[in-house]
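Entry type: protein chain
Record version: 2
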Amino acid sequence: MTRRNFVESAFVMISLLSAPAVAQTAFESGPQETPTELDVIVVTGSKTPGVDLSRSGVGASILTADELRAARIDSVSDITRALPNLNTQRLGQVGGLFLTVRGIASNPFVVNRVAVYVDDVPYRELNELLLEDLERVEFLRGPQSALYGLNPEAGAIVISSARPGNEFEGFLGGGYKNFSTSGGVWSGRATISGPITDRIAGRLTVAGTTGDAFTRNLGASDGREGEVHEFATRGRLSFNVTDRFIADLTVGYERLSAPGVFEQEYLPVDRELYNDLYADIFNGGVRVGRNELFQDAAKSTREENVNGALRLRYGFDAFEVVAVTAYRKENDRGEGAEFDLAGLPLFRGADQDKERFFSQELRAASSSDSNIKWLIGLTYFDESDTQQLATQNLAVGESGLTPASDQTRDGRDVAIFGQAILPLRNDIRLTLGGRYEWARRSSLQREQIFNLPTGVLITPAVDLETNFEQFLPKAAIEFDLGEQWLLYASASRGWLPGGFNLSAVSPDIAKGLVQFDSESLWSYEVGAKVQSQDGRMRASAASFWIEAANWQEFSIATTPTGAAASTTVITSDADVRSRGVEAEVSWSPADSFDLALAGAYIDSEYVRYVFGPGTDFSGNRPAFAPEFEIKARGEWRFAEGFAARTSFSLQGDTPLNPENTVVQDTYALVDAGVSWTRGPITTTLFAENLTDEAYFSGLAFDNFAFGRDGVRYAPVGAPRAIGIEVEARW
């Protein structure tokens, strides 16, 4: 695809267009009635009052409270199923969550390239803990460095929960679902919200799930095959101090306990070959089936997260000022790392991770009726990560886990950012923006020796600190073609600072893997948006071209036979190019029927990627960049109180490793549900992954102990689940 064809392709796609659905303003609260028209409503994702994302030059999608509730969305991966050109990969059922936008993937152990805000609390690392009281989700594609404090290199997801209002309301719900490959999971949630005084309102939510994991470990030495228990609570106080001054205080606690499940779970891609190799030799004659593994290490995962945020907003006549202070602390521990991925009592590993995040963001923005829309912001972000590895080499008779010393990594980022939307004429607007960021990275670890079954690894002595800085410009132009049409073009830059590896590696390669460089990304986009005169249809399409230099990639060094010669390391030895087209359509042909359809084609490749002598992945497709995707969802309210809903997601061939030796074939996921509402009570029967599609959801690796045994191993996706939910609202 040439650059000229890249520009022209957006206009070829216009007939397939779509646009964001509706959303509500930042300070409204409470459930909204399902609209019969797609009203034009200003949203908060732009961070600039008065800017309507459906009429601005950025690829954006929005899910309202009604849409989130209808799609039964209460987790981050649920959100990705409903949003176009956004894909998910993860390390296991309870492992980290990593996002891919327009072929730009976020790999494990590299910071997510998509910024995620939950009630103004920035998340650089994601997990699958519960989200409650969702009111709105906004997804902006492409670099958004001029709008957000946390540098969103490939996109931004802004998640907003309900703000307590001036009327008492409540929610009580529960449900059960059963997996086709294991047992079931119970879930429950309760919310109470309402005024405390004339100017103070509060909201409290408690939610949780408990039940079986959808993967089963048949060989665990402690007999625990796998369970997952989650709990979350969130409290929010809203103060309408004056008509101009509003304050929100939010605190939350989340906990995950998964006995029998390790955060990184790798199952054989070719089960027949795996069973032929290991069933009789190591696994006691047991042949694993779908979503089953046979590993002797006793496994468990525990995660705790405490967070809080204070948001202050003061509205002047000509502009508003918003200050957000956020704090988050996470403690995670996982036990049960395996080297042989079978029942051989060879090795067991554990990882304890303590993270702390503090952020302060100050923004000033023009009023909603200002002729020139502008925003300027200042942000400070401080993070600290302390890790401790523990190993047990059963091959030499070690009786228990032996902890290593702490490994510490600290980061500090300061940035000033902003943009202005300038009306050149009544029908033409120019956006200019930018960001200057300064980042400090430091790491500390002492040299240690690990006697693993595959050989000796060391952690190199590291006591390093360095600074990085970069200016990130942005420019866009918009053309109004009448009241229904908008054309736009934009160019923007994203960036990730470099850093240091805290890894155990083979002594002969240790010095070469200590530091990695900064990553720089340019994104170019042209697009069009349209809406019908009656407001029932919106559509958008875009063509994009992305070039990334010094791509930060996750890797594991290996011996000539393929056995692991390191723990995880980050390198910056690659350049990536991604280009393609995307389109969305939202349509309400009747008051009783809503339809959304989206599609994308992505051509992505490593322009350069040489990882060690004789290892050249140049020309390959980056791991977890699908060739295409199609997503659709619909709702039909066919009788009073009755509704039927379905969603469909088709993902094209997707490489599961940089070598492109493992490719997840094209697969489709179908969800469906039927609900009945009578008074305040709604009952829903649902099916997730209705066709019981088997697929792999994360990066694939060779056997860590035996190397290239002919079998690759990868995390698996959830099987079919059928269940029921009952909820009451008042």
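Comment: The chain is about 5% helix and 55% strand.
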